[in-house]
Amino acid sequence: MKTFLLNLPLLADVSKIATDDYVGFTFFVGCMAMMAASAFFFLSMNDFDKKWKTSILVSGLITFIAAVHYWYMRDYWAAVGESPTFFRYVDWILTVPLMCVEFYLILKVAGAKKSLMWKLILASVIMLVTGYFGEAVYTSGSGPAVWGLISGLAYFYIVYEIWLGSAKKLAQEAGGAVLTAHKTLCWFVLVGWAIYPIGYMAGTTGWYDGIFEGLNMDVIYNIGDAINKIGFGLVVYAAAVASRKSA
User: Fold this and answer.
1) What is the model's pLDDT at position 232?
2) Is the separation of the CB atoms in 26 and 219 below 8 Å?
3) Torsion angles phi and psi, residue 46, rounded to 5
């Protein structure tokens, strides 16, 4: 039993997080916050009809997947003291497409087709894969700036599609709680997701050197994840509640 306890990552690593280790602190708080959000979303599912139940389930999956990865990222940071880039992108490649799926799910009532969902998913995957290339693979010379540009173009395609494209038209047709939720999620993508390019530029080299000097990439990413992933779910939950009250 003594050997087992000594090998537990939680018990072994908690003491290594110093009081001024803001990266470790935000990893730990982010993990706990997303675990709590997952429990809330999963336990709330049965309060809604089938139309909203799937959306609430996806919200819970997003925060649950993130919580698990944050558990590992926090331990990696405590043990190695380096940014857990690989784990972070594994988390994003699962959760960001699911956040795009949320747009499709809430717009189904207005006749959204699966083609919209797949376009958003594809753009999000391109955004993440190219971002990973720039941050972890092609890290010298112009590599980060070039791959970051491609990642940014994919991001702006998502912004265009939900703000001005077919997604916006469907939301306007649906009206009510769906339109309100769609507008709020759009702001999360435009403003909340903009945190990630800042983190990217703070942690890589390119024409933007010096602009975000002094900012810690991991702290930016951790705060952004908590705000966006939990916030996305709360917007969907609020829409579900509003829809139920108006029924």
Assistant:
1) 95
2) yes
3) -75, -5
Residues 6+ apart with CB under 8 A from 234: 37
CATH superfamily of 19-246: Rhodopsin 7-helix transmembrane proteins (1.20.1070.10)
| Whole-number Å distance between alpha carbons of 76 and 9 | 10
Residue 60 has pLDDT above 50, yes or no: yes
The structure's pTM equals 0.90
Radius of gyration of the chain (CA): 19
Do the Cβ atoms of 65 and 235 come closer than 8 Å? Answer: no
* H helical segments located in the chain: 2-6, 9-13, 22-44, 50-80, 85-107, 114-132, 143-163, 166-174, 176-187, 195-203, 217-225, 231-246
From CA 170, how far away is CA 183, in angstroms rounded?
12
Q: What is the pLDDT of residue 49?
A: 85
Read off the DSSP letter of residue 138. S
Alpha carbon distance 54, 71 (integer Å): 26
* Span 167-193, average pLDDT: 94
Q: And the tokens for 216?
A: 């810690």
Assess contact for 118 and 71: CB atoms under 8 A.
no
Task: Tell how far CA 247 is from the center of its chain.
Answer: 31
- Looking at residue 188, the DSSP 8-state letter turns out to be I
- Nearest residue to 245 via CA among 51, 48, 102: 48
- Contact yes or no for 134/84 (Cβ under 8 A): no
Is 112 in a helix, a strand, or coil? coil
pLDDT of res. 16: 58
